[in-house]
Description:
Blueprint: H1 21-29, H2 35-43, H3 46-83, H4 86-90, H5 94-103, H6 105-110, H7 112-119, H8 125-143, H9 149-163, H10 166-177, H11 180-208, H12 219-241, H13 255-272, H14 283-290, H15 293-322, H16 327-333, H17 335-355, H18 360-374, H19 385-397, H20 402-416, H21 418-426, H22 436-468, H23 472-478, H24 481-486, H25 509-517, E1 538-541, E2 544-547, H26 553-564, H27 572-575, H28 605-619, H29 628-639, H30 653-674, H31 685-699, H32 707-722, H33 726-743, H34 764-788, E3 812-813, E4 816-817, H35 828-847, H36 856-875, H37 891-912, H38 925-948, H39 952-955, H40 961-979, E5 986-988, E6 991-992, H41 993-1008, H42 1015-1037, H43 1045-1052, H44 1059-1065, H45 1072-1080, H46 1099-1108
Antiparallel strand pairs: 1-2, 3-4, 5-6
Helix pairs in contact: 3-10, 3-11, 3-12, 3-15, 5-9, 5-21, 7-20, 8-9, 8-12, 10-20, 11-16, 11-17, 11-19, 14-20, 15-16, 15-19, 15-20, 15-21, 15-22, 17-19, 18-19, 18-22, 26-42, 28-29, 28-30, 29-30, 30-31, 30-32, 31-32, 32-33, 32-34, 33-34, 34-35, 35-36, 35-37, 36-37, 37-38, 37-40, 38-40, 38-41, ...
Amino acid sequence: MARPSDEKMAVDERPDYKENVESQVDEYTNAGLSPEDLAFLQNFPPEHKKKLLRKMDWRLVPLLLFLYLITYIDKVNIGNAKIEGLLPSLGMDGTDYNVAVSIFFIPYILAEVPSNMILQHFKRPSYYLGAIVVAWGIVMTCTGTVQDFGELVAVRFLLGLFEAGLFPGAILLISRWYMPNETQTRIALLYTAAASGGAFSGLLAYAIAKMDGVGGYDGWRWIFIIEGLATVLMGVLCVIALPDSPSLSSRWLTEDEARYLTLRQVTRAVKTDPDGPKHKVDWAVLWSVVSDWKVYFLLFANWSQSVPNYALKFAMPTIMRGMGYQSANAQLLTIPPYTCGALSSYGFSVLADKYEWRMPFIVAPQLSVVIGYAILCAKAGNIEDNIGVCVNAWNISNCSGPKKRAISIAYLICAGNIGGLIGSYIYIDSEAPSYPTGYGCSLAFAATGIVAAVSLEGLLMRSNKINAQMTEEEVRAKFSDEKLHQMGDPHQSTYDVYGVHSHTASVSRATQQVISQFGEGHNRSGHASTRESPDLETAEVDGQYHDRTSALTFIRRAWHRLSSSEGGDPVQRILGDAPYAQKITAEGDRPFRDDEAVTAAVPPAAVAHELISFYFDTCAVTYRFLHGPTVYLWLEDLLGVPSADIPRYAPQGSRAAIVYTIFAISAYRKEQIRSSTQATLPESRESDLYFQTAELLSSQETGRVSLQSVQARLLQVLYLLQTQRVTQAWYTFGALLQMTSALGLHRRETRRRGAYGDKSSPDYITSECRKRTFWAAYTMDTYLCVVLGRPKHFHDEDVDQTLPESVIDEEITSEGPKSNASENDSLVDGLVHHSRLAQLLGAATRDVYSVKRISRQARMAAVDVLRRQLRQWKDRLPPHLGTVRPSSLIPSLMRQSVALKLAYAHANMHIFRPLLLENVNYLSGNVASGVQECLEAAQIAMETINGMANNGSLFYSLWWINYVVFCAVSVVYIADIQASKDNSNNLVAGTSREDLMELAERCQQHLSDSNTSSRRYAVVLDELLREAKRTRHRGLQRAPNNIEQRECSDAMQGHDKPEESRAAGGELDSQQAHQAQADSLDFDGPLDKDYNFLDEWSISDWLELDSSVWDPQIF
C-alpha cells in the first residue's frame, strides 16, 4: 500500500522524526531525570545499546517464546486428539466437540484483564506467570484421564482460566523491558511461536500417538499427559529463569546496563503516570480504556485474524482427514501451512518495525487471506497471524502510562479472543468437505479487518490535525484540569524519545493543551510539532543556559545573586570576572592578609594562660581530644622561647603549633563575641596571625610524624572551618587523614608501641589521646561529608579503635586514672556520644543517600533501622547530656548538652528528610510518622538556635551550627511546598503552618546577619523561600474562596521578598541590574500554575542542596 504523503501525515508521525531521536532525548527527559541521569542516558554508547538489546533478546524472548508455544499447543491439541479417537472414546458428537472447544474461551476471555491487573502488583512477574503455567500444566495432564464429556468440559474451562494470563502478561513484560518501537519484532516472535505451534502440535501428536495402548491408555490421552508434564517443567523454569526487571537482574546485567534500561523506561513513565503507584483499582484508567474509540477499531482488526485463525487451527486436522488422508498423514500435513504462517508473521512484523508504520502491514496480509478464502484455499493457512502483532504494537504505541497500557493490552487481547469463541462454531462437520460457513465467515472477518485498519488510519490523521489546531482557551473550555489529567494519552510525545513514530499514534488534547500554552513550535516541514514542551524553557544565568524547571534552578539564582554582589562578601571572588589569585587549596576562601608580619609573638604569660583556659572552657565543646595539663606544660616551654626564635622552633614544632592554634581559636571566638553587636565582619587580624604562625610551624616540622602532628592539624581544620575557609580546611583535613592512617590511630592497640616500634611501658595519657584524636577526626570527617555533600574517608569496616574512657583530664596520669578519682561528670562524654552519633549519621549517608541504585523498600528499611538506633542512642545518654535541663548545668556541660541536642535533631532531619519527597496523598504510616519526626526535629533545632542567638559564646562554639540552621529551615520550606499541594494548615502537630514558617524565617535571619560569614546559606534559603511562597500562591489560586488568597496575592505581586529576605540580600538586592536578572528567572507563564520543582527531586538533590553553598561549580 502506498505510503501517505507528508502533507497528509499526522502531526507527530512523519518519518523525518527518526532523524531527530537524539535531540528529542534532550527535550523530553529533562522533566523527569536528574542531570546526571540525563547525561548518562544521552552518552550511553550506541554499540553498547545494540549489545544490550541482543543480550535482552537472548535472555527474555526465548523463554517467552517457549512459554507461548506451549500455551498454543495446549490450547489446540484437542484438535489433534480428535482425529486420534477422542470423540468415540468419550461418546461425543461434532456439536459436543464444538462446545468443548468453545468453553475454553469463556474464562480465557473474562480472566485476561483481571490477570494483568493482578500482575501489576507483583514485583516479580516470574512468580505469577510461573504459577499459572504450572497450574494449567497440571490441568492438561488431568485431561488425559477424563472419562466423559462433562469432565472434558470442566478441565477445558480450568485450562482457559489459567492460560488466560500468559499472553497479556508476556506482552506487558515485553513493554517493561523494551521501548514501543522495539516491541513489535519481539511480539512477532510470540506470534511466530503460535504459528509454529500448529506445526509442532501436529508433529508431536504424530509421535505421541504411536504410544497408543501403552499403559492401557489411548494415544490421544498420552498427547494430553506428556504435553501437560512438559508444561509443568516449563512453569518451574519460568520461576527460576524469567527476568523480572532490570533492577532485579544484577546477575546478568551490569550496573550501567540496568541503570540505562530503567532510565529509558522512566522517560516514558515519569509523565504518563504522574501519580505513581496506587493500591486500588484505578477505575478512571479502566474507563479510559473501555471508552477509547481507537481500541474498537483495533478490536475489529484483531477479530479479522482471530476468528479465521482459531477456526482453522481447531479444524485443520479434521479438514485434512476429510480430504481422505489417514490420521498420521493428516497430522503431518498440518505442518506446511503453519510454517508458511510463521515466516510471514515474523517477516511482516520486521518490516513494520523498520518503517515504523502499522497499517500497511495489517492490510497487506489480510488481502492475501481474503484472496485465499475467496478461492477456498485452506492452505492459505494462518498467514494472518502477523496481523495480531501489528494490532498489539499499534495499541502499545497509542496508550500512555503503564496502567492504561497494561489494561488496554489485556482488554484488546481479551476482546480479541472472543474471535476464538466464534471460530469454534463456524466449521461444521456436516458441511465437510466444502465448509461454506467456515470459509464464508473467515472471508467476511478478514475483509472487515481491512476496512477497520484503513478507517482507523484516516480517523487518527484527522484527529491529530484537529487537536494541533486547538488553542489553549478551546482546550480549557472543553476540558477541566481533572479531565485533562485523566485523559488516556496525556503525554504521547514521551514515546518519541526513542523513536516510536507510528504513523497513527494519537496526539491527545492534553498534549495539545500544553503545546498551545507555550506557542507552536515548527519543524523542518513547517508543521506544528508535538515535540514543543513547556519543560524545555531555559534561562540564561551568567552566559549559561539552565532549564527553568530544573529542581535546582533556585540555587542557580542564588549563585547569580552572590556573583552579582559587590562589597563585603568575599564570595564574589569565586564567580567574578577576574578570579581571585589564590592557591587551588584555598580557592574561594576569605584570604589571609599578606604583609611583612608572618609570625605572631607569644602573648604575655597572663594573656596566654587566659586564652588556653578560654579554649578548654568555651571553645572545645565536643572536640575534646587534647589533654589539658599537657597543653599547659607545652605553653610553659613556649613562653621561654624568644619571639625571634619561634620560626626555628622545629624540634617541638607540632606542640608549638597546637598552642598557637589554640591562641587563634580563642582570639577569634572573642572577636566574634565582641563584634556580635557590630555591623561588620570581624577583621580576625590577631587570630589570623596566630594561625599563620601555627601553620608555619607545622609546615617546617621535621622528622617522623607524631600524634601531636595530627592534633595540630586537627585544630587548624577547626579554626579554618570556624572562619569559613572551607576549601583550605578540606585539603588540610586530607593531609591529616594520611597521618592518622600512618599512625594507625584507627586500629586498636593490642600491645603498647612507642613511637615506631619502641615497646615501652604503657602510657595511659598517650593511649587515651590517640583514641580521642581519632574519634574527633572521625566525627569531623562525617560532618564534613554531610555539610559539603562529599564522600567519607573513614569507613566503619576498617575501624576497630575503641572509644575513649570517661575520665577527667586532671585525674589521669601516664599510669592510669588516679585511685582517688572523683565521680564528677567528664567532658569526654560529649566526644564519646557525639562520635557514636556520627557513626549513625555516616550509616544514613551510606544507606539512605546511596548513589547506587537501591529500591525504595531498601531505603525505607534503612530508615527504620536508623530510627531505632537513634532512639537507642538518645536513651543511653548520661543524665547531664540528656534529661537534665541545660540551663541547670555548668557552662561547659551546658554547651555539650545543647550541642548534642542539635546534633540529634540534625541526625533526625538527615535521616527522614528524603521522605518529604513522597506523594503527600499516599503516605503510609511509617512514612507519615517519619515526615512528622523530621519536621519536629527541625522545629526543635530552630527553637534551640533561636534561643542561642542571644548567647554569642554558645552560638559561635559550633562550626557546623550554620549548616544545622540551613538544614532545618530548608526542611520547613520544602515541607511547606509539599503541603501546598493539598493546602494543609498544619505541618507539625500543635503548631500551625504559619507559625512554623515564621520561626523558620527568624532563624534564616540569624544567617543573614552581616556579622557572620554564612550569608551564602541565607541567599540560597531566600530563593527557596520564594519558591515556597510561589507554590503556596498557586495553591490558593486553586481555592478561590480561601480568605487568605487576597493577602497572599498582594504579597506575591512581583514576587516580593519579605523584610527578612531583603535584609538577607543586603547589598545584593540594591542592584537594579541584578533584580531585573533575578526576575527574569521567575515563571510568569501558564506553566507556573502547575509546576512544582519537588516533583522532579531525587535523593541526590538533597546532597546537591547541601553542597551548593560551597561548590557552585557543580552547576
